[in-house]
Amino acid sequence: MKLDPFVDLLGAMDAASIAREMERAHLFCLASETASDGDIEGIPNVLKEAMASGLPVVSTNHAGIPELIEHKRTGYLAPERDDLELANGIRFFLEHPERIPSFTKKARKVIEQRFDITKQIKVQERLYDEFIKKTR
Predict the structure, then answer these.
(1) CA distance 16 to 34
(2) CA torsion, points 105, 110, 68, 43, in degrees to nearest 10?
(3) CB atoms within 10 A of CB 124
(4) Tell me: the pLDDT tens digits for 79-108?
(5) Which residues on adjacent β-strands are paired with residue 9?
(6) What phi, psi does 84 have (nearest 5°)?
(7) Who is most buried in 44, 72, 83, 107, counting CB within 10 A?
């Protein structure tokens, strides 16, 4: 299948360019899968960024992604390598635009609660203090 004129592969971009593209987007889709050598990613930052920016997200049930996205609550999850179900996720948001605000509001709340930098720094400081106490 030819991707033109439906998909533009933009290549590597800096953070400002990515932010501009996310501002222009209607939804965000990331199809992750386990590598042939078994390697997996954790929770992709780009998904967190999309959720924080207010985009509905479609992704795969892969590695740490289900810890971030709750299927049909904060986004849409498809099995790895299931392009038809991934397309169904995109179709879901296109056919139900009235549901997008509910998804994106819940998704933003997940990001604010679990990935806030101030909260993360406090957790890191606490862990560091515990480590120092144990090594003395």
Answers:
(1) 29
(2) 110
(3) 10
(4) 999 999 999 999 999 999 999 999 999 999
(5) none
(6) -70, -40
(7) 107
Type of residue at 77: L
- Spatial neighbors of 10 by CB under 8 A, at least 6 apart, are 17, 21
d(CA 62, CA 3): 24
pTM over 0.85: no
What gap in Å lies between CA 85 and CA 103, rounded to an integer? 18
SS (H, E, C) 33-63: CCCCCCCCCCCCHHHHHHHHCCCCEEEECCC
Residue labelled with tokens 């207010």:
54
Taking phi over 0 as left and psi of -120 to 50 as alpha, with beta for the rest, 54 belongs to left
> pLDDT over 90 for what percent of the chain?
77
Q: How does residue 1 score in pLDDT terms, banded at 50, 70 and 90?
A: low
